[in-house]
């Protein structure tokens, strides 16, 4: 019977330690989520960087898009500069910027 009480007390102590650890971890996660609330999505930024690189490569490489006219290249380049300027000035949000880059990339592929 003495072992029963010993294991019961040790078990209660272990449960108390686990609950304290869980409470501490929940408060850390909530603090992290509160701080990361205004951080831009990393994967979307990565996707945008890839789109910008593809657009720039498409505008600079002549042999890949030889059938593309200079006028169309200038229009896409001007649109890219305007969209990037609007995004950096805070006029458009990140998802809208990403969508517009996707449209430019499609236009570059179609021309």
Q: Keywords for this structure?
A:
single chain; mainly alpha; 0% strand
Structural class, judged by helices and strands? Answer: mainly alpha
Unreliable segments of 5+ consecutive residues: none
Q: Helix fraction? A: over 70%
What characterizes the major β-sheet?
none
The number of helices is 4
Percentage of residues in DSSP E strands = under 5%
Order of helices and strands: HHHH
Task: Report what the structure shows.
With about 110 residues, the chain is mostly helical. The protein contains four helices and no strands. The radius of gyration is 28 Å and the shape is rod-shaped.
Map the helices and strands.
Blueprint: H1 2-35, H2 42-60, H3 70-89, H4 94-110
Helix pairs in contact: 2-4, 3-4
């Amino acid at each position: 019977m003495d072992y029963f009480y010993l294991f019961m007390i040790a078990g209660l102590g272990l449960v108390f330690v686990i609950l304290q650890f869980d409470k501490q971890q929940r408060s850390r996660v909530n603090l992290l989520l509160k701080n990361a609330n205004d951080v831009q999505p990393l994967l979307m930024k990565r996707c945008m960087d890839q789109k910008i690189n593809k657009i720039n490569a498409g505008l600079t490489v002549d042999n890949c898009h030889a059938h593309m006219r200079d006028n169309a290249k200038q229009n896409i380049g001007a649109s890219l500069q305007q969209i990037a300027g609007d995004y950096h000035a805070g006029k458009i949000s990140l998802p809208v910027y990403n969508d517009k880059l996707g449209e430019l990339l499609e236009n570059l592929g179609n021309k």
